[in-house]
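User: tokens in, sequence out, please.
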């Protein structure tokens, strides 16, 4: 193919309409709710990339009041046990995702991916943990302790679909945790509030767009990350030591092992990250498009083999 023209449509509906009308040949980031409509057309097709994005709750474990409740690790663990990942993927996402209990793509950790266990859905254990910490269910169904409600503020990327956010809210509400979604109008205001630590939970997407297994844990949870938000998620001194050992290691397998160990600390021990699910990147295209192989990382997508027949 001599030339590919990239056009930018900020609105997902407009992108899909452009494809359906024949104005474009392929669109990225097809909304999940449009998959069945596109797949039903004889002239169009849906393509899915392997999981490259991980949706997780990134937890403010070092916040100042009123964002200080989740300095308690037991509460963080209870949140992890209160989410039904399979229900989200199957009922809310229509199967367009995977129950990945990690902060990165497990394959990048090689044989050491099994070091990361994540959270199973166990509302009974979650309830027992909160009861043991003195958080009792009040008359309104929200837990409280010492006159303080277990009420949390959640941020979500403005591009995150409302159905997913509301599912997380509902699941935690069943556990007796009130979650208020602070809806923000754009990426700038979202980033500003994250950097300021004005939140308890961030429903964020992590994109493994680097071949280094340490990329995401070092970027988000390492004390020397350089990113302003990292101090709220800091996973502790042991985590830092493992990250620094990984940075100095030259053997690729050792880097994988240390990356997996660092993620194990962040998720399984410190619970500053609660994996929610792995996300499929969805594409829609005319059936005349050939050679398109969706990459797990959109950043690294190759267009060299794409042709129109």
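Assistant: Sequence out:
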């Amino acid at each position: 193919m001599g030339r590919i023209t990239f056009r930018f449509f900020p609105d997902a509906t407009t992108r899909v309409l452009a494809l359906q009308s024949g104005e474009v040949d392929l669109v990225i980031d097809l909304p999940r709710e449009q998959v069945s409509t596109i797949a039903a057309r004889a002239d169009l097709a849906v393509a899915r990339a392997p999981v490259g994005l991980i949706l997780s709750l990134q937890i403010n474990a070092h916040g100042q009041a009123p964002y200080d409740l989740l300095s308690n690790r037991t509460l963080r663990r209870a949140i992890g046990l209160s989410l039904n990942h399979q229900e989200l993927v199957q009922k809310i996402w229509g199967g367009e995702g995977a129950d990945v209990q990690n902060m990165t793509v497990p394959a990048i950790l090689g044989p050491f991916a099994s070091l990361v266990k994540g959270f199973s859905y166990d509302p009974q254990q979650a309830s027992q943990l909160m009861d043991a910490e003195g958080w009792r269910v009040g008359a309104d169904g929200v837990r409280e302790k010492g006159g303080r409600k277990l009420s949390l503020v959640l941020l979500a990327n403005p591009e995150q679909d409302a159905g997913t956010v509301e599912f997380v809210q509902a699941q935690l509400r069943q556990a007796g945790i009130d979650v208020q979604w602070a809806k923000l109008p754009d990426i700038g205001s979202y980033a500003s509030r994250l950097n300021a630590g004005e939140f308890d939970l961030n429903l964020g997407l992590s994109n493994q767009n680097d071949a280094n297994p340490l990329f995401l844990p070092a970027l988000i949870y390492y004390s020397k990350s350089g990113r302003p938000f990292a101090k709220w998620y800091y996973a502790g001194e042991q985590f830092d030591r493992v990250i620094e050992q990984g940075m100095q290691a030259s053997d690729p397998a050792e880097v994988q092992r240390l990356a997996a160990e660092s993620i194990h600390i962040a998720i399984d021990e410190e619970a500053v990250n609660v994996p929610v699910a792995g996300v499929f990147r969805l594409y829609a295209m005319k059936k005349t498009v050939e050679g398109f192989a969706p990459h797990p990382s959109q950043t690294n997508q190759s267009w060299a083999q794409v042709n129109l027949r």
